[in-house]
Structure formats: C-alpha cells, structure tokens
Design a protein that fits this description.
8-stranded mixed beta sheet; binds copper (II) ion; disordered N terminus; 42% strand; 6% helix; mainly beta; 5-stranded mixed beta sheet
Length: 524
C-alpha cells in the first residue's frame, strides 16, 4: 500500500466515523478523538455508588524478597493466584494477582545481576508474563503464545484453549510453572511486568495482573535523588465495577478462553469510571515538605492522563521529569503537566516544600471528566530534613541521529474493516513485519488513524520527529512506548539489542492489542 492510499483510507475513516474513534467526554456524550481531546475508548459505567474521594490512604505494593541470592543471580518465586481486595471502600473485589495482589509485588533488580522469577500459575486460565521495557532473551520475553497453563492442566497441542484459537507452531507452552530469566543488562529504569496472553491481555490486566520492576545501577545510586519512603511507585489504572463489587469488563467471551477481545461497542477501548492508584480508589498520601520521587506508570487499558498538580506551586514546573520509560534523562525537564499514554512511565521529582503545611494538593487528569479527572491527593505536612536535589546533569545520554540508521520502515496502525491492523495485517505469529540486525539502529515510522500508543519489545528507542517536526514535550529520553495521536506520523530511532529471535511490537491500547493490532519482528 502506498502512503497516498493510506492517507485516503484514513480520511475516509475519519469522515465515515464509526464506533472505533468515539471518545466519551461525559455521560452519554461522544466525540471523535482529536489532538485537543486525545482520549479514545468507551466509558463502562459502574453499578456501585461512587465512593467518597480521598478518604483512604495510598497503599504501596510490597517489595518481593528473593528466595535465594547466589553469586550474581537473584531468584524469586511468585504464585499467580486469585485474591480479594478492598479496591473501593466497602466492596470486596476478586482480583487476579502476581503474588495474589493488585498491584503485584515490586521486584527490585540491579543492572548486571540476573533475576530469575519462578512463576507458578494457580489461576483458572493460562497466563504469559512479560517484563515491559526489559531487554530480555526471546525465550523469557513473554511471547503472547508462550503460555503458562494453570497448575494441574496438561499441555496439549500448539493451538490450545486460552489463546483465542491462534495457531503457533513455535509456541513454547509450559505447564504450571515457568522460570523467566531477566539479564538486567540495562540502565536504571522503572519497568513493569504484566500479563501478555494472546487475545486476553486486556481482561487479564484489568483483573490485576501487573506490577513494578525497578532496575537500579551505580549511576542512579550516585545521584542525590529522593530514596526510601520518598521514592514512590504510582500505578494508575481505571476500572469499573458490578453491583456486587466484582470487576466489570465487556469481554466477548466471559470464560476468557475462546473468543478474544471485547464486545464490538467497546472495540475502541474500555474506560473505567473509577480511578485507582496502586489498587486504591482515589487515595490520599501524607507527605512532608520535602522532595519526593514519583514514578508514574499508566497501567490502564485505554485511558490516557494529562497529569498536573492543583494548585500549582508558585512559579509552576512542579513535575520535574528525571526519567522516561527506559531510563534516566540526560538532564531534568520541568513540566506543568505530563501527558502519559498506556504503558508509559514518567519518573518525576516533586518538591512539596514549595507548598505550605496544611495545603491539600490534588493530582488531576486533564483528559478525564468529573471524577475521572481526579486521581489522588497529597496532604502537605511539616518541614523535614531533606538533603536531596535534582542535579542539572543526570545520566550520560547518547542522542541517536538519523545518520545512525541502516534502514527505514513504515508501519501503518489502522482500523481496516472493523479490525485493528498493522500494515493491513492482523497479527499472525508466523509472519514477520521486519527482520533486523542485532546492534543496529533503524528509523521506524508509525502512521495512525486514531490514537495508538505503540510499544516495541526488547528494543529501546528515541523519538526523532512528530509530523515532520521536532519531538513533543513528553518524548524525551530512551523509550519503549511512543504515544501516537490520531492521524499522526511519528519517526523513532530504534537501537536493536544484541539478542536474537522473535519479538512483537503492538498497540498498547489493550483492546486494540487483543483484537490483532500486533506484529512480529525478528532480530538476527
Ligand atoms: Cu491502538
């Protein structure tokens, strides 16, 4: 397909409309996603009364303890199982969790040391664990058909229940337990792990299958950044609830075993009407008048956030970004607001001493409406000792150039005939959209119809251009996910790691991903 044909089709889609591009802006109101209102998805209303806001404290995920540490290897054991949590006050919700909790326990890793995660599946469905942002050997990357079946269920053929009828002769299916190996040959960064099962990632993550994975290194440790209780991971998700407090989600197949994806009216994405932070609806956090490192992760299926503090401190620039998806920036960037798409991470430092004791500061979402426009609250306490700072130089940062690239490829992410496709193809595990050489740099150009946050496994990249112009204010640093807005053309410079094998890249709107907007690339 030529670029001109692509443009014609996109124009047709935008004129022709259809459910795929609808965005909810309030009860019963729909409009097309646009640059000024780049939310795509359909709001799923809860059947429970909305809880009172900011009445429960923020919870922090537990930090996982290694089961052994031998030489340069840290080994962990994780049981993936159902659990019960009070996500919304007064309601018990069954979740599916790594470690039986939502979020799952935080894994702390160190650059250069190997992490082994021996994972046992006690859920009623298969899972796939993927370390998002990890530079991981293919066998441990969580390829969508590399199922880990429930404990006690025998392994059958390569086309098995639980992956939506997808046939993949290369699938590596494990029964009950699988050990994932993460080499951590990468810089300090806020990564996360989550389910990646073929066709069912959306409902699986919605039920809770996600957690933080924090990599540290000597560079980060030498910086005077906030640590300990002032280094706070914040997993942002939106969810909806049935009247009995259970999760509501419009799966096409409620068994989550045969038919992937959601009912057709939610194909553009599922938006919940309850904002959770670390699994608590609209929490508050008491902070001292000191600097805090806040690691924002948007783990929502379809919701985007334009995060800001309200009120802003005098002088603005409250959110000082120090890191992006895959590591620390070369130099900090002060933002009044941060736009964060699904799967992206923004590592920021906020100096709460810019507020007065007793101030109440709300973290807002400028892309929400009503309650979904509110995320959490910070209650400013007393002055406290604080010897941290944000240095003008953070980590060594090598800017890639177009001249570094050995190839340029174009990938068109679009709804074609009611199916989310990449270059007009539905996901096929046996087909390759690209074969690249380890250690090389390429320009990948993404073209969209509607809003699609695009994620590459294994490879990190830098944003080169947006619509032929300079990258946007939220594009800095090494990234693994790029937020491509409706009808945009974004070029990235990808550096492929010295690994070989089959990896995927895909839209991280989970409903788009489950409904085929994914493709393979091969390194080697
Ligand atoms: Cu998409």
């Amino acid at each position: 397909m030529t670029a001109a044909e692509g443009m014609t089709r996109r124009r047709f889609l935008r004129v022709g409309g259809g459910f795929a591009g609808m965005a909810v802006v309030g009860a019963g109101a729909f409009e097309l996603a646009t640059r000024s209102y780049p939310q795509i998805g359909v709001l799923l209303g809860s059947q429970i009364p909305m809880p009172k806001l900011f009445t429960r404290p923020l919870a922090l995920p537990s930090v996982l303890t290694p089961s052994s540490q031998v030489g340069a290897v840290d080994a962990y054991d994780v049981l993936v199982r159902p659990g019960t949590q009070e996500l919304v006050a007064g309601h018990q919700t069954e979740i599916w969790g790594f470690g039986g909790t939502f979020p799952g326990p935080t894994i702390k890793a160190r650059s250069g040391r190997t992490t082994l995660v021996r994972t046992t599946n006690q859920l009623p469905v298969p899972i796939v664990a993927h370390l998002h942002g990890g530079v991981t050997a293919a066998a441990s990357d969580g390829y969508p058909t590399d199922l880990l079946t429930p404990l006690g269920v025998s392994v059958g053929s390569s086309s098995m229940p639980g992956m939506g009828g997808m046939k993949d002769p290369q699938a590596s299916v494990a029964a009950g337990t699988r050990t994932y190996t993460y080499a951590n040959g990468q810089n300090a960064a806020t990564l996360w792990y989550h389910d990646h099962r073929m066709g069912f990632t959306g409902p699986d993550i919605w039920r809770g299958l996600a957690g933080f994975y924090l990599v540290t290194d000597e560079v980060e440790e030498a910086l005077p950044l906030p640590t300990g209780t002032r280094d706070v991971p914040l997993m942002l998700t939106d969810r909806s609830f049935n009247a009995d407090g259970s999760f509501a989600y419009p799966s096409a197949d409620s068994t989550l075993m045969e038919t992937p994806g959601v009912t057709v009216s939610y194909m553009s994405g599922v938006l919940g009407d309850v904002n959770l932070v670390n699994g608590v609806a609209w929490p508050y956090m008491e902070v001292e008048r000191a600097r805090y490192r806040l690691r924002f992760l948007n783990a929502s299926n379809a919701r985007r956030y334009q995060l800001a503090l309200s009120p802003q401190p005098a002088g603005g620039g409250a959110l000082v970004q120090i890191g992006s998806d895959a590591g620390l920036l070369g130099a900090p960037i002060a933002h009044d607001a941060i736009e964060i798409a699904q799967a992206e991470r923004f590592d920021v430092v906020v100096d709460f001493s810019r507020y007065r004791r007793g101030d109440v500061v709300t973290l807002t979402n400028g892309f929400g409406a009503g309650n979904t426009g509110l995320v959490m609250q910070f209650r400013i306490g007393g002055t406290a000792p604080d010897d941290t700072s944000v240095p003008a130089a953070l980590a060594e940062y090598q800017t890639l150039r177009r001249s570094d690239a050995v190839a340029t490829r174009t990938f068109d992410f679009a709804d074609v005939g009611g199916v989310w496709k990449v270059n007009d193809q539905e996901f096929d595990p046996t087909a390759y959209a690209a074969t690249v050489q380890a250690g090389t740099v390429e320009v990948w150009r993404f073209v969209t119809d509607f809003h699609h946050p695009i994620h590459l496994h294994a490879a990190h990249f830098q944003v080169l251009t947006r619509n032929g112009a300079a990258p946007g204010p939220y594009d800095a640093g090494w990234k693994d996910t790029v937020d491509v807005l409706p009808s945009e053309e974004v070029e990235i410079l990808v550096r492929f790691p010295r690994l070989t094998g089959r990896y995927v890249f895909h839209c991280h709107n989970l409903e788009h991903e489950d409904m085929a907007m994914m493709a393979n690339f091969r390194i080697g």
